[in-house]
Amino acid sequence: MSQESPKRTGMRVRNRIILTVILAVVIIAAGIAFYLYQLVNKDVIALGAPSDELTFMSNAEGTWDILIMNPDGDIVNITAENDEGDDDYFPSWAFQSDMVNFITDRSGVIGAGQVEPDGNDLRELSEVEAVMATIGTGRLDWDPQWSPDGTMIYFATLRDFRLEIYSMVNDGSSDVTRLTETSGLIRSWFMSVSPTGEQIAFISSREGNENIYVMDVDGENLMQLTTDPADDFKPAWSLDGEQILFISERETPLTDGTPDLYIMNADGSDMRPFGEDDIFSGNPMYNADATQVAYMSNEEGFWNIYAMDINGENVLRLTENDADYMYPVWRPIPLDEESDVAPDAEQTEQAEG
Questions:
Q1: Which pLDDT tens digit goes with each residue over 25-71?
Q2: What is the pLDDT of residue 10?
Q3: Does residue 317 surpass a pLDDT of 80?
Q4: Where are the domains of the chain?
Q5: Is residue 199 within 8 Å of residue 192, measured between CB atoms?
Q6: Which of these CATH numbers, 2.120.10, 2.60.120, 2.30.29, 2.30.30, describes 42-352?
Q7: What global pTM score does this model have?
Q8: pLDDT band at 5 (very low <50, low <70, confident <90, very high)
Q9: Cα separation of 225 and 245, whole Å?
Q10: d(CA 346, CA 352)
């Protein structure tokens, strides 16, 4: 009976190890692929009635911070931790309602930040870390905004592994429609729904830097409004739909803590710096049941947050007029079995009444 040589035995062991490693890699890769497939194809969380909580940015404590106003009117600064002259801008909510995204200059450059609504787990993230954290936690869908009649929801999402804008009907279903089509690392985000409910203004990096675009709410008739080499952020429609306010780094970077405001007509014409004597009321944020709209205005000197009925009645200033409070967003609440969904025709007619 012949005996296998030590050399052949060693080769067989090595081959077995290699095959085991290859199998393990295949299994891990398949598991990751399956996880990512499940992730990007999972249902969007349906959103129910409004929370009556507003989130916004303010310089009331010297630097720009992210604040939450509770239904009773109390305001809580949720990004004050380790804030040593740093500025935090532009809050947006995950659909799960358990995390707030914002941008920050805590590292000396503009980057991403996240914080829980009670102020815990505040962290600054690189762009890659922000994407990985979003995918790893399953918080793919962010920044929900409702149409003026409450029937549609528009949002930004990473379900294509890049920031895109989607829409869905506010009826508790999970059918979604992608409105922006880009590739690579291009971003489309920071949107604002027009008061007519017919257009969306947003920013996109499709030309290399952040510029402002508008499109119809079905994604058609895309038009670029700004072309400056500097980044432009946060378009906000005026309440009459005639103008768009935005923040630009053309003169001053956001890291300086003094955002420069610009204004233009809704078609991009007559673009100019926002003057000291200019008055603007806008950035309308409609709640899910089409009864109220929150917005910002400098009509009383400082920028303040206001709320009013959808028909323009019962205007109420919500902030103190002792500092600037800007860019309100409603905190979303995931739909449960007892939540109301979109308003019916009769409710919408009464609200417009």
A1: 433 333 334 344 444 556 888 888 767 899 999 999 999 999 999 98
A2: 53
A3: yes
A4: 42-352
A5: no
A6: 2.120.10
A7: 0.84
A8: low
A9: 12
A10: 10
Task: Show the tokens assigned to 176.
Answer: 């979604």
Q: Which amino acid is at 39?
A: L
| Three-state SS annotation for the chain | CCCCCHHHHHHHHHHHHHHHHHHHHHHHHHHHHHHHHHHHCCCCCCECCCCCCEEEEECCCCCCEEEEECCCCCEEECCCCCCCCCCEEEEEEECCCCCEEEEECCCCCCEEEEECCCCCCCEEECHHHHHHHHHHHCCCEEEEEECCCCCEEEEEECCCCCCEEEEEECCCCCCEEECCCCCCCCCEEEEEECCCCCEEEEEECCCCCCEEEEEECCCCCCEECCCCCCCEEEEEEECCCCEEEEEECCCCCHHHCCCEEEEEECCCCCCEECCCCCCCEEEEEECCCCCEEEEEEEEECEEEEEEEECCCCCCEECCCCCCCEEEEEECCCECCCCCCCCCCHHHHHHHHC
Contact assessment for residue 161 and residue 40, using Cβ atoms and an 8 Å cutoff? yes
